[in-house]
Structure formats: structure tokens, C-alpha cells
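Q: Start with the shorter request: fold the first protein.
A: Done. Sequence, then structure:
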Amino acid sequence: MKIADRYVLREMLWPFFGGLLSFVVMITGHMLFQAVEVMVEHRIPLRDVLQYLWYQVPTATVLALPVSTLLAVGLGVNRLASDRELLAMRVAGMSRWRLLQPGLYLGLLASLMSLALYHSIVPRAEASADVLIRKIAFSRRSLLVRPGQFVDAGHGVTFLVDETAGDGTTLNNIHVFYYQPDGFPIVFSAGSGRLENDDIHIDRAAFYTLTPNDDLTWGEVSDVNINLAEVGTALSPKSDKLQAMTFGQLRSEARRLEEQGAEGYRQYSVEFDWRMALAASCLVFALIAGPVVGALGHTQSLVGLLVTLLVVFVYYVLMLWLRMLAQAAVLPSSGVWLLNILLVLMGLVLLWRQR
């Protein structure tokens, strides 16, 4: 790496790491703000809240890396241009393509960091966060029984309670859905029940299910009991959420389901391409930052910061839109790359016009 490259790169590193830290704090702070009401209402220990936020730092980091890259390269080029240092480099014979290289080095570094995080750290953190959330939920009965909301208790049991009375131990209009591994689902319905320690206890309930001949059958059953604590401790510590899966697990699961002809393979393929496209966006933003600053006429840093935030906001909105289209089979899973391709073309056009 030449002296000029190291000099330009140093101008970008401080904004990069400063912006990365700032955006990670902003994202995790937003998560904390959303959780404040639940924390106060259900008296969740601060230690558990901070532990959950710590598990969200890797995910916040991969979201902040593209923003930090665009900010760092944009501000670095803006500073050099404002002091006429870029002009001096051009006079010395460096082409615009050559001046882009330090920013591309930084973009490549950010992309590799994002891929490394997505490869192992983010999945492990998401799995740990999922386990922590379940532990908190099963230690707070008010989080387990939420009137008017379906609650997945695990092991094929989902229940719905219309309302609670008294101190929350009396449950009215209870519906329990049990998905049998080797049979038809069973629906239990009861007018009332009670929450005793970690159990939902129903004295008498009506049940409805299908016979092997698809005939509806029903009857009554007594002493229906759902042991929430037992369900919670029996859960595997390995989360099955998409976010908790590595690249290899996503690809193998997508391939397995596709070979079986199942429609569920698409969500795994979209998640894989989404992660790859988001990681590549760091390099894409490093490419377009210089030409965009040049097109703005070397504006002041504050204006550059505002433009950066606007560009990233629009980028994330459009990326989410492309992801929804891909999940709905309107686009192939690789459709999430369209925005990156469009930005690269835009950067090349701006660079060509400024040659």
C-alpha cells in the first residue's frame, strides 16, 4: 500500500469507527427504548435487559457497517477535497479510479467484517437471546398469559385467553390448540380456568378433533393441565429462528426443502441472499461515496452527514421491500441484489461524468 493510500485511509478510519460505535449505540438504544414499558410493567431485572441488549450488538453492528462505511468514505473524501488535497493528488497524476482505492479497501474490510459476524457470531447471539427471552417469559406469568393474543408454549401447544380477572390467576374463555405429531390437531375450549404457579389448570373443557375419516368428533374432558415451567425448561437451547442459523445451515435447509418440493425453502434462500447483499453493500457504498460527494460539489460535513443518513434510510426501506417481494415469490431470492446493482451502475455513471 502506497503512502497516499495510507494517508487517505487514515482520514476515513476515525469517521468509520466513530460512526460504527455511534450507530450501534443508537440501534441498541432504540431497542432499549421499546422495551422500557415492558421492563417497568413486568419488573424485569436490569441485568437480564442488559444481557439481552448485549446479544443484540452483533446484529446492530452488521446493520451499522454499511452506514459507517458510507459516512467514513464520504466525510474523508469531503475533507480532502475541501483542503484541495484531492486536487493536488490529481495534479500529481492520480486518476479518479486510483483515488477510489483507499475507500474500496475500507469497504472490503467492512464487508468481510459483516460476513464474519453473520457466519457465526450473529447466529450464536440470536440463539442466546431467544433462550434468554424464553427464560424471562417463563419466570414472569404476566408475560406468558396475554389476553387476546396467541401464545406458543412449545411442544405443539398454543393457547389463547380472552381475558384475565383478579390478580391475573383467573382465566376466562380459554382455547388450547394441540398439534399432535402423529395425528390431527385437537382443540380444547373452556369457559374458565386458573393459573396456579406455573400451570394453567382447567377443570372441564370441550374438545374437538378429526377422525382418520375426516369426520369431526367432540366430547368433554376433565383436568386439562398445561405445565408452562416444564415446557420452558424442556426447550432446546438451540433456536430454530432464521437469524440463529449460519450460512451453511441456511443453504442446507433450503436445499433439503427444495428437493422435497416444499414451499418453505424460499425463506431460507432469501435470508441467505439478504445477508450476502447486506454485507456487499459496504463495498457498494464505498464505491459510490466519492462520486456522490463530487456531484454535491464538496459540501460541508453536516450536509454530507444528512445526505448519508437519507441515502441509507432509503436503501434499507427499498431492501426490505425487495425482501418482501422475494419472500412472496414475485422476485427470485437473488432479487435482493437489484438495489446493489443499481447503486454500482449509478456510481460508475457519476464517476464517468466526473472524469
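Q: Next, the second protein, separately.
A: Sequence, then structure:
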Amino acid sequence: MFKVHGKMFALLSLDDQPARINLKNNPERNIELREEHDWIIPGYHSNKRHWNTVIVEEYASWELIKEMIETSYKLVWQKLPKKVREGSV
């Protein structure tokens, strides 16, 4: 589990083969990603509207996965209280 100030932005399952990672994104973008890539599915054990599960196969786009990780981090970061983001906590 990867967190920013105690809030999860990524959940990586190392027990599954291939590896799977849950990442947050905008609901509209999640639908697009699922339609475009068969290795991106609704978030397993997550709010399927806001989370995707990325099945990390050899044919998966590493550039897209990195972009999705950054997006997930930013979305969670933006929801943190302002005083936390500004470092006054």
C-alpha cells in the first residue's frame, strides 16, 4: 500500500501473478481506460467508479502506468487539507 500523508493512492498486490495495482482516477477517464485497454479493469475491492485495477502484463504500457500512478497521487494529494499540503502540520 502506498500512501501520501496517510491516504492511499496505490495498492499493489505482489501475491498475484501477474502483479496488480489499484489506482485512482477521474470516473470519466476510468471508463475510457477500461474501454481502451483489456489490462485495465474496475478496481478490485474498491469503489469501481474512482479506482481501476491495472494488470501489469508484459504488453501493458509502462508510460501509461506511470501516468496513472502520478494521476492517482495528485488526486489524493489535492484532497488533503490545505494545511497538510502546505506543510504546516
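Q: Describe the second briefly.
A: The chain is about 35% helix and 25% strand. Strands lie at 2-4, 7-13, 20-24, 40-42, 51-55.
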